[in-house]
Amino acid sequence: MYSSYNNVPLSATFNRVHMSSLLLSHCTCTCLNETRPLEIFPPTCVLKVDDSLRWSVMDETRFLWGHPLHVCSNHNETWSSDCEVYRMRCFCSEDTEECKTKKYKHVHVDYYGECRDIPKCSDEEMEDFPRRMREWLFNIMKDLAQRAELDDRYLELEQEAERDLAKKWANAVIWKFCDLDSHPFDRSVSRHELFPIRAPLLAMEHCIAPFLDKCDADDDHRIALKEWGLCLGLEE
């Protein structure tokens, strides 16, 4: 089966997303503000007492598959990097002269890659998407375990899924839910916490955004484990 992005096989698409997520995790952007931390994720802006606004960027220009890692903002504008987006947000949140326009006070990364027209997800594609997601989650969990990169807390889940195919999908779904539930750990996944799977994937898999929206069945901007499981096609 192929994704909608340049006829790339689905497995290659998801592997690319997995690798891009690993690369992005090494970017650290810090906004130093004397009054309050900015609620930005990712990267994280943290509070450090200081008498001026400062911006610290590590590895500001990153590359993926030999190309600069551009991003598309929520204003449908292409930026050279995610750090550039959040640097501008920090400037505008503090009304500094570096702020280009007030609309950037709430700017954030919508997805990775240059801005493009995102096609509508058809009913047929949406119906099949949970199966494809389950397959991807299991393959990623298995791959991380084989490379000794899976957190020790989840190794038992992966090994059980390998031994008992009846638990293959359920264990992968539970692993990813726990992996996403981190900022904060509260047994639910927020829109911010969905960023690591939504943003790298959207330009290549146009169904990911409506699919994740659908997972929030009660529209409270948080996805509980039960909602996550049902959304991915597991039985109660």
Automatic annotation (TrEMBL):
Superkingdom is Eukaryota
The reply to whether Signal figures as a keyword in the UniProt entry is yes
UniProtKB keywords: Calcium, Coiled coil, Disulfide bond, Glycoprotein, Secreted, Signal
Gene Ontology, cellular component aspect: extracellular space
- UniProt-listed CDD domains: EFh_SPARC_like (cd16231)
Q: Which Pfam families match?
A: SPARC_Ca_bdg
Q: Which residues form a coiled coil?
A: 140-167
Q: Name one GO molecular function term.
A: calcium ion binding
Q: Which InterPro entries does this UniProt record tie to the protein?
A: EF-hand-dom_pair, EF_Hand_1_Ca_BS, SPARC/Testican_Ca-bd-dom
Q: Where is the SPARC/Testican calcium-binding domain?
A: 119-231
Name the SUPFAM superfamilies on file: EF-hand
Q: Where does this protein reside within or beyond the cell?
A: Secreted
Q: Which PANTHER family match?
A: BM-40, SPARC OSTEONECTIN
This chain belongs to which protein, by name? Secreted protein acidic and rich in cysteine
Gene symbol of the encoding locus: ost-1_2
